[in-house]
Structures
1.
Amino acid sequence: MPVLAVDHVTKRYGRFTAVDRVAFEARPGRILGLLGPNGAGKTSTIRMIAYITVPDEGEVRFGDRPVGPWSQARMGYLPEERGLYKKMKVGEQLLYLAELKGLAPAEAREKARYWLDRFGARDWAGKKTQELSKGMQQKVQFISTILHDPDLLILDEPFSGLDPINAELLKDIILELKDDGRTILFASHRMEQVEQLCDDICLISRGRIVLQGGLREVKQRFGKNTIVIDFDGDAGFIGVLERQGVVRPITRSLHHAELRLLDGASPRHVLETALQHVDVITRFELVEPPLNEIFVQVVGEPALQAQPVAPTS
Amino acid sequence: MNKTWIVARSEYLRRVRSKGFVLTTLLLPLAIVVFLVVIILLAASAFEEDETRTIAVVDRTGVLEEALVAASDEAIRFVPAAETEAALREAVIAGTYDGYLVLPADVIEGDGQVAYYSAEGGGSIFENRLDRRIERVVEEERMRRRNIDPELIREVSSNVPLRMVKLTEQGEEAGSTGVFAALGFGMGFLIFMMMVIYGSVVMQGVIDEKSSRVVEVIVSSVRPFELMLGKVLGIGAMGLTQMVVWSALILAGSMASGAVVSLFLDPAQLNLPDSASTEEILQAANITIPTFPPELFVWFILYFLLGYLLYASLYAAVGSLVESQQDAQGFLLPLLLPIIVAMYTLVPQVESPNSTLSLVLSMIPLTSPISAVVRMAVTDVPWWQTLASLAILAATFLGVVWLAGRVYRVGILMYGKKPSPREVLHWLRQA
């Protein structure tokens, strides 16, 4: 299976540079998380990979050939902004989209039946899309993305609008496709999903890659600088530590808190302060920061400086 | 090109199978035929006399009564009134008379108004007839007073019939030029309607795809230009299907309408034997059902197709710029201006098809689909002019579809704000 190589691509819209010399590789059998705040250039990058637009500089290759109509046939794209033909029947719709990917009608019909079955949607083929609920439409669109057995999958927020049961089903299928040796690009704002699914991540901010690598390796790079504490009793110690400039709370609830240690603070001091307030501590652990925290740290700090507002990507 | 074909086929089948298409395609010609039959029947019924109206005449001039009574015919019978006006009023209401007429004393000198009193008003056809008869009697009285012989006037003002014959290279063509003028108007109007209606269908299709965001998925399989072209061709094929069905139905309908109309006409009334054929009956009733020169139909289809392709490409480009029909108006107006001009100048074009205006409009590609067809319907157009006009139109289409593709490709992926005309020009310059 071929490797997807994004080779220093740049895309400009007028004077605005949406993507600035972005370079990364996505490998077969792995899931690459494409992260970044809104307007960072994710969609622009994805559109160049999907050969919807072409880069002003650089090149996107799938295997050893530049992407083109040939690679579109081997790629499935689930855009963040979903859309189907509202008045078309589900079966007809899947057939049309598969045919545009170069699938013969007979094969497309067979594949559509298989996938509708797997999503428990066998009876939908004759229904008009507008009669389906949003979650159902979501499933239909996902099926249209994988119907032609693509080697490269681009999934932009695939879980949005799905209930937990269907989200779990979708996750299983994505992992199955990954084990099958397909290359998967996963764009999301939901960091807990990224942590569950991705092997590699690539964080884009204002058109540039700001962080990139294997998920484990990236997290290790940030070190164990976060304390997870479960407790019973008075949570006042968090306020005390905050005022001392020792920690910054990431999340906190009644019996649980995640605290980021600020420069040079010792975990021991945190534990001692906590013991003075609470009745019981059931967990005290020094861990790597959650991805969410890394995201905020990497993207958030420079973003505080005044920047010209980027037009829509 | 293969993908263009898939898109075109899907667009075509999706639309042709819809209930709306089947209904409009079948019902519209039916409505037109029913409408035509009703009109023809109404016109035919005007030849028949329903009943004779009896009108009492109160003549205050003292000289017109005799002439009016003498002017009685099958439609209107004038009788001298013996009763007083009050008695006449009651007689009219009782139904003894259909109405009564009061001629004031000074009507011959041109003063005063003639008044007609009746229970039911009368209707405009009857009013005309009555007016004509009274006028003639009054005119003759005026002439008599000035010693002019009424016979002389009748001779002077007798009708001079004019027969209009259209000369072509093949010789004389039967039928009046009026029929061809009507044909010209009809075809020009039809092409105008079809370009605007099918163009709007294309635009709506583009807007739907864009606003539902499905376009993002489609262009990850198809080049935007192929998608646009497929859509334009598919909807064009739908339009052509509709036209062919309509033509066939209207042709069948116009052939049948003769028979239908003749069913309602009584041969005896037209002084024909009962065995008279449909043609004879229609001829006797002075009803002509126009025939359509077949080569004109070929030109009509050719201009319709090229005109549609040109405007549909423009409509597609406009659709790609907006997310709702209302937003499109500002972009559409300048594009539609040429055909609006062509429509507004239709009358002078039909009246003088060889004027500079007609010639120029039949050459300019944005107006030629209408103007060239109108010209061809009413006059013999030199073949080189037709060829030049078609060549210009085809070349313009190629240029426009290329430019429209540039706009479309950028437009369909721009969500949110509507670009300004200046931005669009900028995209074109970048292309």
2.
Amino acid sequence: MHNKSVAELSRELESGKISSVELTQQFLDRLKQEDGKYNSFITITEEQALAEAKAADELRAAGKATAWTGVPFAHKDIFCTNGVRTTCGSKMLENFVPPYDATVTEKFRQAGAVCLGKTNMDEFAMGSSNESSYFGAVTNPWGLSSGEKRVPGGSSGGSAAAVAARLVPAATATDTGGSIRQPAALCGVTGLKPTYGRVSRYGMIAFASSLDQGGSMARTAEDNALMLNVMAGFDPKDSTSIDREVPDYTATLNEPLKGLKIGLPKEYFTDQLSPAMEEQVRNAVKEYEKLGATVKEVSLPNAKLAIAAYYVIAPAEASANLSRFDGVRYGYRCEDPKDLMDMYTRTRAEGFGAEVKRRILVGTYALSHGYYDAYYLKAQKVRRLIQQDFANAFKEVDVLMSPTSPSPAFVQGEKTNDPVTMYLEDIFTIAINLAGLPAMSVPAGFVDGLPVGLQIIGDYFAEARLLNAAHQFQQVTDWHQREPK
Amino acid sequence: MQWDIVIGLEIHVQLATQTKIFSGSSTAYGAEPNTQANAVDLAMPGTLPVPNENAFRYAVMFGLAVNAEIGRRSVFERKNYFYPDLPKGYQTTQLEQPIVGPGYVDVDLANGETKRVRIHHAHLEEDAGKSLHETFFDELGHGMSGIDLNRAGTPLIEVVTEPDMNSAEEAVAFAKKLHSIVTSLGICDGDMSQGSMRFDVNISLKPKGSDQLGTRTETKNLNSFRFMEQAIAHEVERQMDILEDGGRIIQETRLYNGDRDESRSMRTKEEANDYRYFPCPDLLPVVIDDDFIEDARQRLPELPDARKARFKEQYGLNDYDAGLLSGDAKLAAFFEETVEHGKDAKLAANWIQGEFSARLNAEEKTVAESPITGAQLGDLVVRIADNTVSSAGAKKVFEALWTGENDNVDAIIDAKGLKQVSDTGALEAMVDEVLAGMPDQVAQYQNEEDPKKRKKMLGGFMGPLMKASKGQGNPKLFNEILVEKLGG
Amino acid sequence: MSISREDIEKVAVLARIKVDDEQVSALEKDLGNILDLVDQLSAADTDSVEPMAHPLDAVQRLRPDEVTETNQREAFQAIAPATEDGLYLVPKVIE
């Protein structure tokens, strides 16, 4: 069962061949047995999962089942779950049990899905390797046979590794600068970051509010469509949520791609990309040509500034978003504070890890008196230029394609001593967040036995078209079905 | 040396919305601590703000009332600082693009002049919670403060004036006018003892006639007109002493203790926080269209200036009475109810400004807390006007109404026997009897040539007359009869 | 662009994060490198460009002024570090 997709599991449950309780128990057993190798979960919610499975079986018996009823999945530990510890990968929230649900959590509950637990992540979603988690690094299921432990990417590395290792068929994830697409690429799974505002951010612990977007990870594009069917939609509790109709994303998966216009941004095919990686990506594009798509080169002249703009805007927003972790109302508080200042400064020094502190300090500096114009305002202007680049490109083509990451999964510890080298992991993904566009990463080959991701970028609210393009590709390739040894 | 005083005000006005500015929690005053602080107000992880429509409606109504430009596009920013009563670690406020732009308020001064005070802008923001400094202790015996976040997220408009006021009197007159505007609009309950309006005063001095502004200080959080007046006087004196000794004023924030008439420095400009303002990414720009403004305009009630003009016109009140009675919306409504029942506007005005106001002040009550209604006072006014009761008797009726002894004016008059005797025949008989018993005084009166002195001498007969009538004789009629009987 | 030790110490106070001398040295290097990366921005010509705060050109929706929340103090204070009499306790606040 563990090799089946969400769509397949849904059909199994529908046919009555297996109950949700049985299915859930199988997944839980496997999860408990296997996850020691990957550390992809922070919390396994066995009891709740079995209770949800039982409720799902009853719902099905009552004839009220939907596609998700009784299907196991996991939440990235950034989505608040009522009554279940939600850590955001941080010591600060090590014992935080929210008395409320994120909107996304609530939607999966309503759909009758069975949550097996909370997946590991970089602390407060800040990282590209999952090594900044307070709960330990996550190991990529790929490349283990070589004897070296590789990173799964980040920040949604737990979700990606869990899906790749067949511990869950699908998991939620979030993406602020590449945190869905880059780990999806490094773990050989399919991930979707929707348009900013498509999925509610309520109850999703904020890193950088104008960039954060919840999304999905699964092995197939079809399962991502099933995920988005649950997650997408207007939420009156999120002021930045968009009130716009949600289509059935599975309905258009089988549309033919004939005539699809693909743009290849020349700035994303430079010497930062190894020839082996480039070859895999170009091969994937050739598959699309075989499916009837046309390809042309386009230019995103300001894309090279995306990392710089991002590392002002994201830390600036984060520096304010993380001020609420002050030891007053919830979360970690240092021992025996001698006064108020001591409580604040030690609580935050002890509760946050090194990368989070670096970003808070950078953001504080960028907003501080005398630097605001040179950093923050300038970055916002560059952000506009980047958005305009994409707008111009989408006048000519339907989707853009590029590699998702500059290299495949690297060895743990390789980049932890140099934050800036780590930041360059997101060189092909970050501009998309600045513009707020939807994008996917789709398995598209291997280099040295490690997965390579193809990034497909769409215009605003073009999720259905992205999923269609990814699904058609997956009908003629089997990269997404390969299983790590 | 002679000095010019320059004063500008920043006023925090709590808006009388049902819910908080960014959440659906109640803003009702006086609830148990932290029972009106929900996940958003507590800044629980992942929670997000959604702005309250009425907060914007009230801000726009205020803008229209002070002749201001309305910010068609306003933007919330984050003002970053750590304080236990500030759950998010930043205050969501407006800076560059506020909801209310430049406007003005005309203020009537006691000397009859009108002063125009310009409004620089007014912006929407959230209030903080409260730190309670009563003593709690942790297990090691360290003193702790308690934090109540019920108030956190209550909508405020912060009104910022230009430095257009030149005396404590002007500043207080402006503050009272602003109070009158926001309470008339119904956008604030105006209860200063509960912090519904709080004043920060910026004060500087400059040599008389100079056009160069001096260094200013800001005295924060004054919550009564009296403290405001005292704090200004105190700060002007403090600055004058320093300047006349050749010293320099330090730009700083000061706290005034009204009970001790003392002030102390809170922080200097050098220590001032670096608030790192930036646009709040959880909120989008608020666009106010013509329809929204028109709707707000339709909701505007009569404002104090218009009401004052109407009181003069409709009730024939003089400028002073009209000004006093029109300023406070509730007092104005009370006055109109009194007149509706009592007809005689001048008499109603006198009673409201006299007995009624004195009694409210003595018991530290607001008009809303008055135990008597305008209708009851109106009924009393009718009985005073038609001579049923004397003014001394009326005071007894008022007392009975106030204490709740009885709620009907006529019933009180009957029960207490306060009805005046106005039967001319009976009164004439009493006058005859009294005059007969006072022949010397009658002669003295009749020999007096000076009409002023004669008039004064009449009073000598009134005492015995009132005594003879057991206090129930109509003094006005007694007077008329006396004059007649004494031959003019 | 480099960042001085004083800057780091100042920013750490603003951000309420305690840093010791050793950390300041490490941060001097790391933050300096990050700021070097960020300094690429200065090359961009942004003279007539409007700053962009949000990806979508949307405007704020306003919520009706209706009470939707009920008292949940018990649930919220169950996860608080220190409370007494319904209040959150913190080391003494001195104004």
